[in-house]
TrEMBL record:
Dimerization mediated by the LisH domain may be required to activate dynein. The lineage of its organism: Eukaryota, Fungi, Dikarya, Basidiomycota, Agaricomycotina. It is found in: Cytoplasm, Cytoskeleton; Cytoplasm, Cytoskeleton, Spindle pole. One of its GO terms (cellular component) is microtubule. It comes from Kwoniella dendrophila CBS 6074. Residues 407-421 have a biased composition (Polar residues). Keywords: Cell cycle, Cell division, Coiled coil, Cytoplasm, Cytoskeleton, Microtubule, Mitosis, Repeat, Transport, WD repeat. Positively regulates the activity of the minus-end directed microtubule motor protein dynein. Plays a central role in positioning the mitotic spindle at the bud neck during cell division. Targets cytoplasmic dynein to microtubule plus ends, thereby promoting dynein-mediated microtubule sliding along the bud cortex and consequently the movement of the mitotic spindle to the bud neck. Self-associates. Interacts with NDL1 and dynein. InterPro entries: Dynein_regulator_LIS1 (IPR017252), LIS1_N (IPR037190), LisH (IPR006594), PAC1-like_LisH-like_dom (IPR056795), WD40/YVTN_repeat-like_dom_sf (IPR015943), WD40_PAC1 (IPR020472), WD40_repeat_CS (IPR019775), WD40_repeat_dom_sf (IPR036322). WD repeats lie at residues 110-151, 152-193, 195-236, 237-278, 320-345, 346-387, 436-452. One of its GO terms (biological process) is establishment of mitotic spindle orientation. Residues 7-42 form the PAC1-like LisH-like dimerisation domain. This is Nuclear distribution protein PAC1. It holds the Pfam family LisH_PAC1.
Length: 452
């Protein structure tokens, strides 16, 4: 039986080779192989024959297997290096509570876009990631499985930003086609509204925390506020003298931070549109600016030697007190948003800083750069504690996972994923959580998912 099976395998292989040679137009080799393998009656006009395309399938399977083996070997080497490090031995007993920090290789590499990735963001309740690209499309992925769920088309030029509202019912995108579009996630991502008003490329768009308004930044040098329900522009903020690259609201929605080609970042009062502080110190275009979450305040104060906030300074304990900015001058700066003082400059990247994310533990700041790496900075001492070779080209976007987890039914998920270590939550606590997944996007047209 084994001998018979071997003959069958040989015959199938010969026919698959003949099929390949014929499709490749190698007629002399095709005729010679037919004679040498006694397949003079072989016909290639049967598209359903099992050997059609078999050689190519086997070859690509081998390549995929080789890549998987190389990824596993790289991960194994990384784990062995971690186990042999002196700090690992001393902290082995507390390893289960150590915050998750990304390490190569990535868990998933998502490919389908046909141009550089501009932005990635997680859905707040589903295992869904949205990505935007210069190819004018938005793609929706299941980040756990790595499967692409759908491609959304509607913009006619590069899609520059994407965001979900806090409940995940709506998605918003903005584009160089001068428009902002709202998409209904519960209805097959139907385009429910298109907002017109900016006079140049729209660089950035975000929902306010209550989900009732949008804030957008544009190359027309303005920031606009929109009503989600009506689609009307209700406010326009002016002050920057050049292209406004980004705008982000604080967690309580009272403040906005923006960054611009004019080399400044501004803190805005959301209610009246006044500039409360202008942050000056970078020597090139600012690519990104974000508020620090309140759980980072203790580490930031220790880093800057600020001590406890003054007794009467209520804002120092509320969202919007500290800001991080990244610039084309290759530096990251940490600011006191109330006084405008630069608290620390982080130096280490070899190219433009394109994205910043605070770690959910409140202990680290992550940066992504055109030097193709992610760097992790300790907020207590200001040192770079880790560099991850992330992509084969510029890293353009980075975002941390989020989910609404709570109640007894989700307790196990909360324990495993929240804040990088095990935490117990009250059953009635259904607030948003940051979970252990990081996503990055690159000019190499791939998205990478980083998990423990």
């Amino acid at each position: 039986m084994s001998s018979l099976l071997s003959e069958r395998q040989k015959d199938e292989l010969h026919k698959s080779m003949l099929s390949y040679l014929h499709s490749a137009g190698l007629n002399d080799s095709y005729e010679a192989l037919k004679r040498e393998t006694d397949n003079t009656e072989f016909q290639v006009d049967n598209p359903k024959a099992r050997w059609i395309g078999l050689l190519e399938k086997k070859w690509t399977s081998v390549i995929r297997l080789q890549k998987k083996i190389m990824d596993l070997e790289s991960r194994n080497a990384s784990l062995l290096a971690e186990l042999s490090s002196p700090t690992r031995a001393s902290t082995a007993s507390s390893s289960s509570s150590a915050p998750f920090l990304p390490r190569a290789p990535a868990k998933q590499t998502l490919t389908s876009h046909r141009a550089p990735i501009t932005k990635v963001t997680f859905h707040p309740t589903w295992t869904v990631l949205a990505s935007t690209s210069e190819d004018s499309s938005i793609k929706i992925w299941d980040w756990e499985s790595g499967e692409m769920e759908r491609t959304i088309k509607g913009h006619t030029k590069s899609v520059n930003d994407v965001d979900f509202d806090s409940k995940g019912n709506l998605m918003v995108t903005c584009s160089s086609d001068l428009t902002i579009k709202l998409w209904d996630t519960s209805n097959e991502y139907t385009n429910s509204k298109t907002l017109h008003g900016h006079d140049h490329s729209v660089s950035s768009v975000r929902f306010t925390p209550d989900g009732e308004k949008l804030v957008s930044a544009s190359r027309d040098k303005t920031i606009k506020v929109w009503e989600v329900a009506s689609g009307y522009c209700v406010k326009t903020f002016t002050g920057h003298s050049e292209w406004v690259r980004g705008v982000v609201p604080s967690d309580d929605g009272k403040w906005l931070v923006s960054c611009s080609n004019d080399q400044t970042s501004r803190i805005w009062d959301f209610l009246n549109g006044e500039t409360k502080m202008e942050l000056r110190g970078h020597e090139h275009v600012l690519e990104c600016a974000i508020f620090a979450p309140t759980n980072c305040y203790a580490a930031i104060r220790e880093l800057a030697g600020l001590g406890n906030p003054p007794a009467g300074d209520s804002r120092a304990k509320l969202p919007g007190a500290f800001v991080a900015t990244g610039s084309r001058d290759k530096t990251i700066k940490l600011w006191d948003a109330i006084s405008g003082q630069c608290l620390r400059t982080f130096v280490g990247h070899d190219n433009w800083i394109r994205a910043l994310v605070f770690h959910p533990s409140g202990k680290y700041l992550l940066s992504a750069s055109d030097d193709k790496t992610i760097k992790i900075w300790d907020l207590v001492n200001g040192r770079c504690v880790k560099t991850v070779d992330a992509h084969g080209h510029f890293v353009t976007s980075m975002t941390w996972g989020r989910a609404l987890i709570g109640g007894s039914s989700s307790q196990n998920t909360t324990d495993n994923l929240t804040n990088g270590h095990t935490t117990k939550k009250k059953e009635e606590d259904n607030g948003p959580r940051r979970i252990n997944v990081l996503a990055t996007g690159s000019v190499d047209q791939t998205i990478k998912i980083w998990t423990p």
